[in-house]
Write a structure and sequence with these properties.
The protein is of the alpha/beta class and 301 residues long. It has a 4-stranded mixed β-sheet, with no helix packed on it. A 4-stranded mixed β-sheet has the order 2-3-4-5, with no helix packed on it. Strand 6, helix 5 and strand 7 form a beta-alpha-beta unit. Helix 3 runs antiparallel to helix 6 and helix 6 packs across helix 9. The radius of gyration is 25 Å and the shape is elongated.
């Protein structure tokens, strides 16, 4: 059983729709930016990469048709291109580039060698093994494969298809949750602690939220009125604000895409089971980051 705070501790905060209590410190007043930074330290690209010892490679003078046929079994989308032999005392042959083979699995394969289609090593296809997963996801639809650099060596490979891995799912859900916190704080700033935001919702949603609030108070589980709103409620409250001067049609459409990703993550749906779905997830991540920056300072003075 929780201990109720003294009346003098509760009443000043009730006007803001926030209750002081044993759970309040974990839900109100924390820094969402600091929380996100800590989350990013945990979910690093190295968690989702294929380790170097597990990579299949090819050489630049190999025939492309033979290499493509070889990958029909393991279904690697990209292969590192290596020199013919490793240097003395080196465990692996030196990687000199990347070649995408997935695009050749359908239709006729050009009668050429790997060299003709190889992408030499550059900043565009390298990423630090300790980089945050979101650093890769953000542009993975544009740069679908990266070689991981760990210390002084290449330690693995990550590609667009790796968005299906569990650490990516966790990182994405953290990003979406962080965005929802930003939306909540934006609403609080606009209303300065008052509860007028409820009037912007439909009568049905008002009734449902008020019922949940009443039940929470009866069970001594009430912290904050806004915690009982759903993602779509927050979008509606912000969009209907007279202070929201941006394109409301675009805002509604783009937040619908974010909500769709949120729901897919929450209910174990296929958010990255195909190249199209994975690419859509990358675009949605960019939308989240864009609107996070906007709403972090909205409404302005």
């Amino acid at each position: 059983m929780t201990t109720k705070p003294a009346k003098g501790d509760v009443e000043p905060r009730r006007e803001a729709g926030i209750r002081s209590g044993p759970w309040a410190s974990s839900m109100v007043g924390h820094d969402p930016q600091a929380t996100m930074k800590e989350l990013q330290k945990v979910f690093i690209v190295g968690l989702i990469a294929t380790k170097r010892k597990e990579l299949e490679t090819c050489q630049q003078d190999e025939a492309l048709p033979a290499v493509v046929e070889r990958t029909r079994i393991n279904m690697f989308d990209f292969l590192p291109v290596v020199e013919a032999k490793p240097a003395d005392a080196e465990p692996y042959a030196k990687i000199i580039g990347l070649v995408e083979v997935a695009s050749f699995r359908q239709g006729e394969v050009p009668d050429s060698d790997i060299r003709s289609f190889m992408h030499p090593l550059s900043d565009e296809n390298l990423i630090g093994a300790d980089a945050n997963i979101l650093d890769f996801v953000r542009n993975a639809d544009r740069q679908r494969c990266r070689l991981l650099v760990s210390g002084l060596e290449i330690s693995g490979l990550v590609s667009l298809s790796d968005l299906q891995r569990l650490p990516v799912r966790a990182a994405l859900f953290g990003l979406v949750t962080h965005f929802e916190i930003i939306m909540t704080n934006a609403i609080r700033r606009e209303f300065n602690g008052a509860e007028g935001w409820l009037a912007r919702l439909s009568i049905e949603r008002q009734s449902q939220i008020e019922e949940k609030i009443s039940n929470a108070k009866l069970m001594d589980g009430f912290v904050d009125n806004l915690l009982f709103t759903q993602f779509g409620d927050k979008e509606t409250i912000i969009r209907k604000s007279p202070f929201f001067k941006l394109n409301k049609t675009a805002f509604k459409s783009e937040l619908a895409a974010i909500q769709s990703l949120r729901n897919a993550l929450a209910h174990a749906n296929d958010y990255a089971s195909s190249r199209g779905a994975a690419s859509g997830t990358c675009r949605t991540v960019r939308l989240i980051e864009q609107w996070s920056k906007t709403l972090s300072v909205w409404p302005g003075e």
